[in-house]
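Hello forum,

I keep getting stuck at the same step: I have a sequence, I want structure tokens, and every attempt I make locally crashes halfway through. Rather than fight my setup again tonight, could one of you with a working pipeline run this one for me? It's a single chain of 176 residues.
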Amino acid sequence: MHGIPAAEVDRVAAFQARWGGIALPPAPVYEGGPRILAADTPEGSAAEGWWFSAGDERVSMAYGFMIGPGGEFGIHAERWTPLHASIDGWVESLALAHHAALWAQSITKITGDAVDDLGLEEYEPVREIQGIADNWWRGEDCLIAVYRGEADCLAAPQCRTAHIYRGLDHWGLRGG
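Reply #2:
Ran it on my machine without issues. Output:
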């Protein structure tokens, strides 16, 4: 009826069947993120691709959380910015942020140009959560989350943010 291809309707239905109704903890950045995952009507075109809303947001924001043409989880405003290659990456990132915040002895927030000066070469990427704009790194007793999505989406480099979770033991670093 709205010119939405059947394959896109199927993609929304598959998302809803797997993720629909799942309540999420607030995101450390992105003003909390979606509250409950719930798909909405796809928007876009055959030429540019199709997106659909990932769920209602906690607060009114300058962008919406969307599932992209390739299944990426990201934000969309004046431009599309994928944060993770899939919704799984976003959910795992939220879970890791919650876990790290629970177990860390301290949490340091860094913003703007200081994020680029972190010197992450001595840290190992947390591969199962490596995103596109957002990434996680593991050190001897810490986890570092780097968030670049708002900076990319809004062309606002001052929005780059990193959270350093320090003082983590084996349980806090690896979950078991």
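The longest strand covers residues 106-111. If your local run keeps crashing, start a new thread with the error log.
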